[in-house]
Amino acid sequence: MRTLMTMTAVVYAVGSYSFGGAAMAQSGSVGAAKNVVLVHGAFADDSSWSKIVPLLKAKGFRVTTAGNPLTSFADDVAAANRAIAAQDGPTVLVGHSYGGVVITEAGNDPKVVSLVYVAAFAPDAGQSIGEISQAFAKPAGADQLQPQPNGFLLLSQKGIEEDFAQDLTAAEKAHLVAAQPKTSGAIFEAKPTAAAWRAKPAWYVVSSNDRMIDPEQEKSMAKQIKAKATVLASSHVAMLSHPAEVAKVIEEAAANGHRR
């Protein structure tokens, strides 16, 4: 297992997907995107996007969830790359929580025209989650990390119910507890090699009631990446508690991804 300090940094990241893939025209020369790839974060699976998928499909988008395995950063980026490669044109890449690290790397694919960070980490190249979190308050959910064999981690039931998804229904919380995959602690030490947000427009959803990432850190990251920010009175899982608002942000990123 890793040191307690590393474990604390680990719990900071929860929930998103990312993708990367085949080349196409440069983002500056394309119009509105009709493809959306959704990347979940740590301690979650594709079902964390269950309310977003039908909303976007009803608007005519082709929606794909990346299904990152949470076994290593390289595995997660590879999953995102495969999802991007399967798209047929300009693509919006959306990441939640740790998924923001994945889309920061996978979003360098030229098929990706815009990035959406949903209560997500947005590191620069060569930065880990722990490094960008040092100046901010430790979130309450960090104390609910449960080490598992072979370097994997789980959030406790209390952590999910009170810190991860405190504004969801009892039934929704029960599903998140049951569906939670084990997450490799090593992913929280990962460092992107290049930050896609430096070259592509970004949007950011700030969850002002987040207990997994300090909301002030989310605001700071949104400013750092020059993202258009939307603040929602939400828990960490804004895409489940405020799906209509999050879908609207994704739609805006799809319509304006060709603009920097």
Q: For the largest beta sheet, what order do the strands appear in spatially?
A: 2-1-3-4-8-9
In N-to-C order, the SSE pattern is HEHEHEHEHEEHHEEHEHH
**Envelope shape:** globular
Q: What is the CA-based Rg, rounded? A: 16 Å
Number of beta-strand segments: 9
Q: Outline the biggest β-sheet.
A: 6 strands, parallel
SSE diagram, text form:
Layout: H1 4-11, E1 35-39, H2 52-58, E2 62-65, H3 73-85, E3 91-96, H4 99-106, E4 112-118, H5 129-133, E5 145-147, E6 152-155, H6 157-164, H7 170-179, E7 183-184, E8 202-207, H8 215-224, E9 228-232, H9 238-241, H10 243-256
Parallel strand pairs: 1-2, 1-3, 3-4, 4-8, 8-9
Antiparallel strand pairs: 5-6, 6-7
Helix pairs in contact: 3-4
Task: Please give a structural write-up.
The protein has 260 residues and is an alpha/beta fold. It contains 10 helices and 9 strands. The protein has helices at residues 4-11, 52-58, 73-85, 99-106, 129-133, 157-164, 170-179, 215-224, 238-241, 243-256, and strands at residues 35-39, 62-65, 91-96, 112-118, 145-147, 152-155, 183-184, 202-207, 228-232. Helix 3 crosses helix 4. The longest helix is centred in the last third of the chain and has 14 residues, at 243-256. The chain is globular and about 40 Å long. The model is unreliable at 1-30 (pLDDT under 50).
Task: Label this structure with key terms.
single chain; 3-stranded antiparallel beta sheet; 9 strands; 33% helix; disordered N terminus
Short recap of the structure:
Helices cover 33% and strands 16% of the residues.
